[in-house]
Amino acid sequence: MAKKLESSIPGMRYPSGRDHFLKTAWGFLEGRRKDDGAEGLWRVHDGLYDLESFAATHPGGAEWIAMTKGTDITEAFECHHITDRAERLLPKFFVRPATSQRSLPYTFAPDGFYRRFKGRVREALKNVDYHRPATSSKLIADSLAAMALATAVAAAAYKSWSVLVLSSIFLTWTVIIAHNFFHQRDNFRMYYFDLSLMSSKEWRVSHSLSHHLYPNTLWDMEVYAFEPFLEFLPRPDKSWPRRALSLLISPTVMTVAYFGQAVKRYYSILCEWRSPELRDLVPFLLPAAMSWVASSPSQGLELWLVLIAASSFIFHFVGLTAAHHHPEIFHDGDVCRKDLDWGLMELDAVRGRRLVDESLFLILTNFGSHGLHHLLPTVDHAYLELCVPAFRETCREFGVKLNASMTSWQLIRGQYEQLARAEPRAENFHKTAAA
């Protein structure tokens, strides 16, 4: 039996959900219920709260509350609420102090990096309705979804492989931009994500409540869900054959990932959540439409399978090379900074991309503005530019240098270098940041 990894972040425990055999969102949440000391309630810092009666009126939607019952929601509570309204409302639901220490060591000191930054963001966004998506983001998302559907139907009707390639690009862009919306309060555009076979509900957990809150750590589902095929964390027992195999099979893993997530999705619906929803029918819209117009249903299904495989490869290639994996970016196992402020820890695990971060269209369709998005996940990408002055001012105050952006090529190459990296970094390199 392989030895369990130990985090290099002082005070971070090994998450029970990491050992779930299918590594589903349900498994992550069940693990947290074992680890977090929330006693069937909702934990925020060192207090336990009963949010049951509040779920139906939660502005972000009841799902966020219902899914997280019995877990520690401290990091999500802090970064999902920009104003202090939630903080003022929370004491109404207080039950009792927690009796155990938190499983995670992150801090949110009033005079720390993240709280200072968030205070400045409130001022920067005071003239926009940042609780709702921007009109420009909605228009781009709707246009891409329409083009994805139109080109998929055209490819099936005329059996055009070139149009199918174009459709795979539109579908990928639609799925990526949908991620902007499932971070926010419930809305129909988040279901564009489900056209891919992947689940917006699962990703609200694996992406929003795991990866976003604990990037490149033992708690990051977008790291451990790929194991043992792709191993991003440095570890001395990562032998050369294992590293070489990761490099060789990574294109295949990216191509079949949508299908793998579909298996997990419907297993989880039937055996874990046991509550099918209307969104679980969305993945069948494209194959139904393509089979309807194709010369035969089997041909429509064949073209759809190719479309899904192509989109899966593009989505995961873009996602895995977007911001996180490079030998110069912190991964659990590397020397950790002494200041465990959550905002600073986020910045250690992310880099910006030149050119991509200069265009709203590219930002929305290529996981751009990654640093600011991690710090402000519920703020629409179109509004993040307004937060740049606040970000720069806070970085200057805390001595964080603003020169950490990389080119797309550096991050593409760096992802493969990271897969091949076995030795943790011994020196402290937590000095830079990029929006």
TrEMBL record:
Source organism, top-level taxon: Eukaryota
Transmembrane segments: 139-158, 164-182, 244-263, 303-323
Domain called Cytochrome b5 heme-binding: residue spans: 33-99
Keyword Transmembrane: yes
Transmembrane helix found in the keyword field: yes
Pfam family, one: Cyt-b5
Keywords associated with the record: Membrane, Transmembrane, Transmembrane helix
InterPro entries noted in UniProt: Cyt_B5-like_heme/steroid-bd (IPR001199), Cyt_B5-like_heme/steroid_sf (IPR036400), Cytochrome_b5-related (IPR053100), FA_desaturase_dom (IPR005804)
PANTHER family named in the record: CYTOCHROME B5-RELATED PROTEIN-RELATED
Identification of the protein by name: Cytochrome b5 heme-binding domain-containing protein
High-level lineage: Eukaryota, Metazoa, Ecdysozoa, Arthropoda, Hexapoda
